[in-house]
Amino acid sequence: MKVCYSINGKKKEFEIEAGEVLLDVLRRNGYFEVKGNCYMGTCGACTVLIDGLPYTSCTMLAAKVDGSEITTIKGIGTLQNPHPLQKAFVEKGAVQCGFCTPGTILVAYALLKNNPDPSDDDIKKMLDGNLCRCTGYVQQIEAVKLAAKMLKKGDE
Amino acid sequence: MLKLKNVKSCFTPNSIQEAIDILKKSDGKAALVGGGLDITVFPNPIIEQFIFLDKLGLTYIREDDENIKIGATSTITDIAKAPAMQNYLKGNVKIALTELASELLRNQITIGGSIARHHFYSDIIPALYALRAKIMVSDGELIEGFFVDDFYRNDLKALMETCIVVGVHLNKYDDSFQFGSKRFVRNATDIALLNVAMLAQIEEGVIKDVSISVGSRPGPAYRFEQGETFLRGEKLTKVLTEDFELFTKSNVDVAKDMRLSKEYRQHIASIYAKEILLDFMGGVR
Amino acid sequence: MKDFKHIGTNTDKIDALSLATGQSMFVDDISFSNMLQLKFLYSPYAHAIIEDIDTTLAEKYPGVEMALTYKNTSRVIHTTAGQGWPEPSPYDTYMFNRKMRYIGDRVAAVAAETEEIAREALKLIKVQYKVLPAVLDMENAMKDGAPIIHDEPEIKGAYDPQRNLAAHILVKVGDVEKGFAESDVVVEDTFEVPYAQHCPIEPHVTITYLDEYGRIVIRTSTQVPFHVRRIVAQVLDIPVQKIRVIKPRIGGGFGVKQEIILEDVCAYITMKTGKPTRALYTREEEFISSRTRHQMKVNVKIGAKKDGTFNAVRMHALSNTGAYGTHALTVASNVGSKTLPLYNKAPNVEYIADVVYTNLPIAGAYRGYGATQGYACLEQVVDEVAHKLKLTPLEIRKKNHIKSGETSPIFKALGEGREGVTQYIQSCALDELIEKGAKEIGWFEKYGKKTRNGSKVRGIGMSIHMQGSGIPLVDMGAATLKMNEDASFNLMYGGTDIGTGLDTIAAQIVAETLGIKPEQVIVYAADTDLTPFDVGAYASSGTFISGGAVLRAAMKIREQILNVAEEMFGEHDERDFVLEDGKVTSKKTGKSVTLSEIAYQTLYIKKQHQIAATGSMVSPYSPPPFAAHFVEIEVDEETGIITPIKYVTAVDCGTPLNPELVRGQIIGALVNGLSYALSEEYKFADSGRMVGSNFMEYRISSTRDIPEIVPIIVKTYEPAGPYGAKSVAEININGPIPAIGNALYDALGVRVHKVPYTPERVLEAIRSKK
User: Fold this and answer.
1) Are A53 and B103 a contacting pair at CB < 8 A?
2) CB 3.0-4.6 Å disulfide test: which of A58, A111, B82, B265 passes with B61?
3) Residue B29 shares a structural domain with residue B47
């Protein structure tokens, strides 16, 4: 069956199986920046924003989100023009192997849109579905706080 | 990884009647999809059709003088953010709901989905039991409200072939009522292995009325009626909390599995029961 | 120590922005149109012989290219351990074995056009098994009459397979029995640590394809590209020359990718069919059919004098290596070699290890590599000795730990499959680590106070650790540098950055040595065709060995640059030259030339030659990093639930070449250690099948599980290491189990002898005390 998504601002049509999950549709169509593997919603590496909210794309039926706006990590910043969150993650040493990073940054992005001045606890609660085995989380939390500061100063 | 190989078609009905019509014609091979979490994580190979509930207007949390009405496709995140829930029973219900699993899953788990599948996600159903929530079920024409235990006394499979859970009604309670719940987890984002939820009406230090539910994954949550009988009419004192701890330990019904022993579940259920009562007393230890 | 420009700075990780913007390519981020998908069929029995297997129907299934079993694949016996040659692990496996030795062992595989087709085809494979009795408990492996797991006559290098012993170690120094007899107190205790998994967020994944010359290219998520090349060549019986291994970005390794798991099978299919082949482990396969930590029971007995000096130390480890012996001997060696030298004051030391085969998942390399299991016991028994002598945990350690200038006979006695190498400690800040850590945690205010809040009691515990930096005289790495017109340099080195930031360290080392900026170093790594050799990312060898090689290459380049400058200046003493800020300046005459000018000169103008150099590093030194861990916990007496409140780790890694990256290694290892101490555990059904092979059941830390964490870096200068650096990758995973165990004792006077310290076990310990 056919579905239509607007991915990072670009509307596109996709051919999908009715029972597929969004993660598979995305990667099959070249969106390799969406990672993941657990297929149970438990690691968070496959996180994308759907209409602005973060979800695990491995548990989201592709057919269900027909017509949605999907944001992957490439939709919030580029190498040439990174988002403050991406800059902050680099600066704070919050990126080690980087496999969990796109998902984690997207969740932080959604958090900061609603809560521009989050406490450590707010951040921990919001990022609790993005498992990371490399960093131990401390630098990620520091990065989100730094990004919040950067965004407040209007450092776009 | 394509887990749901046999699904051939998807429907997004515009009304409940339409949804039920499709459901009835499907010969048990259609799945109602709220958030879709359950269906993708635990795929059922007989499913050939999806019925998406997104257009039925069931994502709402409203309040009036008597009730808080929650639509079935409201997610945990929706409920946690709702103004009506912030001060409901001092915010304790909201806190109970937002501890479970992870933010990403809370965005996807719907209350209707959790109820309709009689989930072993212990966290939600014990709270609903204790709150004496009414589960609103529609057959396309009429909506009937069931208390949680009555709802589960039905042949759930048969019921869900011709009806849809459309919402949950939570009673509003006056200040004499308190709510408390505690959960046992292996670490923070775990799905609770054991939880206890309690709603009590305490007037002049006496437990006028109480409802208690215990959930012990993998078993379904249930209403701990023996405990309710034990407490009803008693004066809430430290001694009572200790007596209730002992009573709970010997009388609570808990499943066991490789995750946690029966003995420990009984033990922790009794501790939680005591602690909730102590919280009701104002945290006096 | 002079001031460094780039060493010791928080240079941004050179690949961090690329990763954070989703640009970086991991193994699975490429695709070929005719790529085959590989799926495995696993044994449903813990111990069984395949009497017959018929893949005819599977092969006929539309879309199936090939089916593999023991009947049509390599019969070269080997080890899957990614270790240097000759590998110190038994050769006890084939690509496909005829005997199944655990639930998760490979029966067969199918390569097909899609994953779904491959899965369907697997169901059509007919297998006849002869089920055998299984060994499902490591305590039973060596008992008389136990089923023999490795009865194949071709097995090589296992210690005594008839008794299911993959390895056995006995090292004696002095006479421990005499030592115990002479001691004023003797304390003994045993602790058991479970099966655990690394849980890299990216599981094992390999893609193979033929290049235009018919060579097999293996693009794989690995820590050991050169070992992959050699072992695949061995298994497929083709020359090394026919294979190229590429390591792109890796999503975490922690030891589980120090192994050849998917590469040989994929390579074989590509070789036979000419088509690209992809294999990706599901999370379940990652838990069951990749590698795990060695489950172990460790017993330590310490005899000490009244004043606290250790007189005799005996350590005995029973290690479960699972169905195959990869890393069996070497992990067990490290249980003793990375722990016992820490307390070098004891003149009598004995270490015994029995490493047994069982019909359970295969254990392999995992961060800590035996030291984790050794310290789980040792650091708790040390505390127990202190208590018996009425000394504090701080005092007993200060009295006994190794210091700068000292050595231990264990260094030589315990190698990794060969004799070890004597080490003299040249940098050690343990006293300062203990002092600073104790202050930060509030040791003197909190220890022994057992502060209570209802049923919740607080406790403080500590532990100290050492590890190593590479395997002395074994691990080698090499690096090649070449200069470009704009004074940028290509660094091609074998060092294997698996997310740790090694590539960044390498760039910093080049920048510091050549007076340029790290951004001017173009790093290309771990490609067996284009980079020189490196053993790979393990044994905490990255900075010390791979970085050491980079330094050597850079020093040679420096030499070449100064020679050209000499010519260009007409001066003859390069000792007058300063290489800084992208130019060479003569202190004597003030003449100066930019590096770019030197590059143009040498590439185009006069006496043209490519400024380039290769450096190799192998070292007789393996200077240990040191750490002191302190934890404050709150334990609920009624429920047994332990909550870590604050965790302090003070670390001496020599010069921290990049402090932010060092912090990342410290915190990452420690958080992993925390969930290992509190919630990670394999559970098995009676059949031997692992139950709960997913993240819902196997609980690793999330953001909501971490306490307040304070890493403290204390600088020392290690003369053997590049710019004074040692290593930091593994050591901190060793702390949480003993530190929390000791904190529990401080709070409630009980110990839990079986890790993880689940509430049930803690509660039982509390009840037993009463």
Assistant:
1) no
2) B82
3) yes
B6 touches chain C (CB under 8 A): no
Cis, peptide link before residue C86, omega less than 30° from 0: yes
The residue-averaged pLDDT of B73-91 equals 95
Above 0.95 for ipTM, yes or no? yes
CB pairs < 8 Å spanning A and B: 93
In C, residues 49-108, which contact A (CB 8 Å cutoff)?
Answer: none
Instruction: Render the burial of C283-306: b for 16+ CB within 10 Å, e for the rest.
Output: bbbbbbbbbbbbbbbbbbbbbbee
The candidate with the shortest Cα–Cα distance to C258, out of C359, C159, C368, C93, is: C368
Residue among B4, B41, B188 whose CB faces A128 most closely: B188
Range of the domain at C347: 295-471+621-769
**Least Cα separation, residue A138 to chain B (angstroms):** 16
Cα angle for residues B14, B15, B18 (degrees, 5° grid)? 95
Backbone angles phi, psi at B282, to 5 degrees: 105, 25
Residues C346-357 pLDDT 10s: 999 999 999 999
Within 8 A by CB and 6+ apart from C435, the residues are none
The structural domain count of chain B equals 3
Terminal Cα-to-Cα distance of chain C (whole angstroms):
57
CATH number at residue B124: 3.30.465.10
Query: In Å, how far is C99's CA from the nearest CA of chain A?
Result: 30
* Token pair in block for residue C584: 């060479």
pLDDT band at C690 (very low <50, low <70, confident <90, very high): very high
Q: What one-letter code names the amino acid at C55? A: T
Does pLDDT of C169 surpass 70?
Answer: yes
What subunits make at least 3 CB pairs under 8 angstroms with C?
A, B
Tell me the domains of chain A and their CATH numbers: 2-72 (3.10.20.30), 84-152 (1.10.150.120)
Residues A136 and C673 sit within 8 Å (Cβ to Cβ): no
> Over 90: is that where the pLDDT of B86 sits?
yes
Helix (H) and strand (E) counts for chain C? 19, 29
What pTM was computed for the model?
0.97
